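Chapter review. Work through the record for TRAF-type domain-containing protein before attempting the end-of-chapter questions.
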Amino acid sequence: ESPFTDLPQNDVELTPDKVKDEKEGGPTFHCDLCDAELVYTIAQAFLPGLSTACVDNTTGDVFKSPGSVAAEIRKEMVEYLTQRSETFVAESVVLDAGLEVQASDHPYDIIAFLIDEFATTKRNLFSRVSEWLLSDKREDKIDDFSQEMEINGFWSIDKREAIVQTLLKNVDLKNEFHCDMKFYSADELAQHVPTCKYRSMTCQNEGCYAKYSISQMENHDSVCPYKMIPCEQKCLASLMRRDMDRHCITVCPMKLVNCPFYSVGCKSAIPQCKIEEHRSLDFHSHLLYILQGIHKEASVEVLRKRVEQLLQKYSSKLANIRDLRSLTYKVKDLDAKLGPLKVCATNEVDVATKTAGKLQILEASDTNKVTEKGAETRVVGFEAKPQSLEVTPTNKDSIEAVKAEIKDSEAKLQSLGVKSLNKVSKEGLKTKATDVEAKPQSLENTITNKDSGVAPGTTVNHHEARPPSLEVTPKK
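Structure tokens for TRAF-type domain-containing protein:
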């Protein structure tokens, strides 16, 4: 059997006594209007508070259920909140500090604290222990009983709001959430109500049933999830605010996307609806990116001329192709039909310069090797001298390698459609080769001179120890 079967099916009228006027003969007609949204929010906290008090009061009791004590505890709760709200006003005026709720003077925080305080007073001894041992089960029972009361209409929202209005006037010390106007006659009050800034209204947006004071209309309208607003990305659609995020990242035509040619080099981010326009305006660039993938070593200037050649001869065949894969295959095919890529004179000079640079690197490398050999000769002495003479064959091999590389470069240029290197480049290369050939001889002379300068010292130091039979004749 459900523990909630004893829940009363009918609601009862529970309205706390209104605060009496402080001065006799003063205005007796009060405007009862309050901030409707805040009143509703506080009223929603009543059922969970009542449910907590009922569950904790009957935990471990086999003769009572939360539903059997709900009506009695509800009455006690209303009386407690009314008395404490009035006491709170008095204590706040007399005392400067000491109340826990003084950390916040917002009416919701104050009343929520009073509700929790009441629920704590209704705990029995067993619930004080089981709160720790069975906390998960306790929370489940509280939630279930709160939903049961909501479904059965045990405490209607209208009745709860009527109680909240009285409590709100007691704790709203700054008069920010209720009307404090007072009148001498009912007619004066009736004339005031239609113009009161706290009169309630229901949201006019379709699907929204929120209630709020007329003074909060702009604030609610700025956050209402059902408000129809234009697309944030400036498309022509208008939609509910709650659907905006999903629209902007899914179906919005102005959603930013990567160019279809992103993988080959186009890094533009464009609105989804302007992809075709981008393809048309940047068609030359897209062809250039594709050619750069085909001819990786060619310069941009050369490839731009190649793009012009393709468009002059095959623009009709390329214009209607939209996807990257098809256009890439077509460009490769048409590029092959145009023949080998022709390199301009500037590229010839660049190739010659690169080759000359390699020659300089080889010269520097040979010089370093010879210098290292000379250093070893000075350290070891005259016995190491024959080894230093073996540098020459190494340098000859390097010269032969450079000459072979020059021939290979000329062959590559001819295969690309270049008739021949310009004269300046050729003469420069020949001069470099001649210098390299002459370099080893000068290096040999230098080594010989240095060795002869070191040898006397070596001879003096080791003459007695070195027999004549150890003299070595250099290899020819």
